[in-house]
Amino acid sequence: MGYKFKIMKQEQAEEIAYKWHYDGKYSFYDMESDKEDLVEFLDPEKRGHSYFVVINEKEVIGFFSFNKVANNTIDIGLGLRPDLTGSGNGLEFLKAGLEFAKAKYKPEKTTLSVATFNQRAIKIYRKIGFEELETFIQDTNGSSFEFLKMVKYY
């Protein structure tokens, strides 16, 4: 598929934040579930040039955030539009995001963190070459949750 990456505009951030709602346990990923994340996501200055929407043909199908961290590492966050999840779209979407990151930032490694209950995503991350680093507890969405930190080396 021909994915295009474009800096996220305010209108797109608001659409994602207020209209994308995931089913069941995945509602954990609704932007409105974590007020701190929501504030950052909706603030153009805090988003800066690190948040990109992913466009397939003419519609937004997802987003990525790319944050440079120490030692030539990019930490990514991502979201696939709710109606596209759970139906085999994740692998190609993730591949496109990693290819974009490699071309733009030239990292030696990429990291990400995922809630440990999200085995669907973890399976895709492993399939594309991410390795487990550690688990940690993070306060988010009004409670504490276990996350898995993963890394992919190039």
Protein described:
It is a single chain. This protein has a domain at 3-108: Gcn5-related N-acetyltransferase (GNAT) (Aminopeptidase), CATH 3.40.630.30. It contains five helices and seven strands; from the N terminus they run βαααβββαβαββ. Strands 1-2-3-4-5-7-6 form a seven-stranded mixed sheet, with helices on one face. The model has no long low-confidence stretch (mean pLDDT 95). It has 154 residues and is an alpha+beta fold. 31% of the residues lie in helices and 38% in strands. β4, α4 (90-105) and β5 (109-115) form a beta-alpha-beta unit.
Key words describing this protein structure:
154 residues, alpha+beta, Aminopeptidase, 38% strand
Summarize the structure in short.
It contains five helices and seven strands; from the N terminus they run E-H-H-H-E-E-E-H-E-H-E-E. The protein has 154 residues and is an alpha+beta fold.
Order of strands across the main sheet: 1-2-3-4-5-7-6
Estimate the helix proportion, in percent: 25-40%
Mean pLDDT: 95
CATH class of the domain at 3-108: Alpha Beta
Order of helices and strands: EHHHEEEHEHEE
CATH fold name of the domain at 3-108, please? Answer: Aminopeptidase
How many individual β-strands?
A: 7
What is the terminal-to-terminal distance?
23 Å
